[in-house]
Amino acid sequence: MHEGLISIGKMAKINHVSINTLRLYDKWGLLTPIYIDEDTGYRYYDMKQNARLDLIGYMKELGMNLKEIKELLDKEDPTLIEAILIKKQRSIEKEMDDIIRKRNAIKRTIYSLERYRKSPTPGTLTTEYIDERHIYAKRVNKNFYDYDQDGYEVILKEFKDQLLEEHLPQIYYCNVGTFLKRKRFLKQEFITHDIFIFVDELFPKKESVQTLESGMYACIYMDDFNNEKEYAGRLLKYCMDNNYDVIGDYICEVLIELTFFKDNERSMYLRLQVPIAYKKVDPHH
Question: Where would I find the HTH merR-type domain in this sequence (predicted)?
Answer without folding.
Answer: 5-75
